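Two quick folds needed for the group meeting slides. Do the first one here.
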Amino acid sequence: MTNRMFKTGESRDQASLLPPRIDDYVGSDNPVRAIESFVCALDLAKLGFRHADRAADEMGQPPYDPADLLKLYLYGYTNRVRSSRRLEQEASRNLELIWLLRNLRPGYRTIANFRKENWEALKAVNRSFVLLIRELGLVGGSVVAIDGSFFHGDASKASIFTRKRLAEQIAKLDQEIEAYGKSLEDNDAAEAEADRTDGPDVGGGDGGDLGAKVAELMAKRSCAQADLARLKESGETQLSLTDPDSRLLVKSGQGVAGYNVQIAVDDKHKLIVESDVVNDSSDVGQLHPMAKAAQDILEAETLQVLADEGYYSSLQLKACEDDGITAYVPVPEGRQLKKGRFALKDFSYDPAGDAYRCPAGELLRPMEGRWQNASGRIEIRYASRTRTCKACPLRSRCLSPKASLRTIARWEHEDVLDRHRARMQDAGELMRRRSGIVEHPFGTIKCRAGYRHFLVRGLNKVRGEWSLMALCYNFTRVLNILGFERFMDYLAKSLTWPCVLSRPT
């Protein structure tokens, strides 16, 4: 036997009796086979995919089967390949994709258009998979955590204008136009003086250049004024020149030109059961919509929802309670507490006497009438006595130097907040669980997969792309939880579950 320095492969010129099959290059337990089985179990026509209900006798060049393009995207997003050009390359050289697509090689435009045109169907597929994992018993259905995270859009900060920024731009252009106008006047005066004295031309001959520059500045000013008028007419606060729906989102001093992704995560296996994309940096109005959507898809009569203090809203807490949802949201510290003064929690309410008792033991009585605050809440105001507050030894810790008495506003549904505050007294363990539940998907998607931005423009298309991200996160996690064999067995049974794998009604 001849000794060899290294292991050697087979000769590329070696003839074989039988050529290898494509199927031989993909192992029997390769995850790509799970993608194949899952897509084959879907009713793509009911889910709303374009061309899915095309008849065999239709005329013209046949399109690609949407099932094949969906398989391509599921494989790509699962394996950190999102670009349509990269997917086109991989379809030609990646053996797993060659097996999955049966050697089809769609062009990058076809691939990109599929993602843009089928955003609603992609959302339906994501929802169908959540229904499937619910049927598999992989969700607890009793506790979910809600959180939001900023993702970059296909736009830069410089392409997004606010009313303030447009007004500043117009003011700066006015200054430049005024400066160039003065230069034009000086140039004209110099030329007139040269003509009068019949001396040499001292104007420099740049009057035409200055005029062109002024015309250019005037054109920019007109565009800025038109953009400002559009903002005022539409009532919007921002205008994006690149992606019309992306917004400049700011939180904790950090700004992002993009979107705010909201997710509801079940605590059993950290699977995303509901998600949405909004272009508002605030999470205040998202608690009840996300909690209600999670409750509906889990078909839970009651549900515990965990969220951080950014979701705190009295109106949202009441809406959750009305729907049988128990929300746990930390109460933000009030301004009075930050200034070293007594906050609302330092005053105790006496339901029998309908009065508040202050830390000094004095009563605050209700005032006549009702008031509506900026958020639309109807409130009752309670006030102390001026004479009592003047002589109070705790005055400096309760009132500002100019105030003569203390008032407290009580919402007409304050009992909802009283119950919430009582729940939060012993909710320390739940709040610690919250971060461990809901931060896991965002950490996996952003750090492991590297998905921190969207490739498409427009809120609806972005929602479709996010559905792909969430679906592939859940898909990979379910494979890890169940194992390949069990997952494939469940998919085989799911072929008899049209209610699970078709569009929800």
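Then this one, please, same format:
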Amino acid sequence: MSVGVTNSSDGDIANQIGGGDAWLLYTDTFGNIIASQEIGGSLGDAAISFDTTIDSGLIIGATSASNDLGVSGNHGMTDYWITKLDSMGNIQWQKCFGGSQIEELVAIKQFRDSSFIIVGNTDSNDGDVVGQHSCAGCYTDIWVLRLNWNGNIIWQKCLGSGFMEFASPGGLAITNQNELLILGAAVIDGGDVSGSHGGFDFWILKLDSTGNIVNQKCFGGSHDESAITVKYNNEDEIYLIGSSTIPDGDVTINHGGLMFGF
């Protein structure tokens, strides 16, 4: 299973809906196409992340600018767009979450109690978004949502400093203690951020299951670091993967240009 976005109306794309559709591609282990499915509205819709669900269905996390056809409830500009499919690919429900500005989804996972955790970015401070650390349309916060099985908000949380923070593409993991690991980037201290080193740092947060911050920490040097993904293993070890440019602060070796490591 792969998800993404398509602007095509030929080849493997059978049912184009709008200018950019969320594309779900089902293949066997040899890469042969089993099924292809496009969902969305008349504007831009991009599937970003998915997870399998306890009923053998799928939960699809997308970013959408549409508010027609297969998308309803958009709050303005782009929203998180969440679609629940059954095991046959039929849409059970779809909902938009966000405010009047821009929301960009980066990751979705099913929690152990069958609820859903969604991570991305927002520069709204209205609609579903409460507690943004900057003014609406100014700077970006990381925005975390927890939804119940039917797609209703259990809680939402903005994480930031009042300047610019954003979630990494693989910036969500769940621990054995049902805590959430959120990985992103932060620049300055303030609000939820402390311990920054200069430039963009790796910014890792641990939240409890109700969205409260357990702890947070910045990792980096005096220049920019770019966090990509967080991984958690059963030994309670956390791995952060990304890139760095300058060997100072927490960065001990650099081979020139960008360095990838833990």
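Slide caption for protein two: The mean pLDDT is 89.
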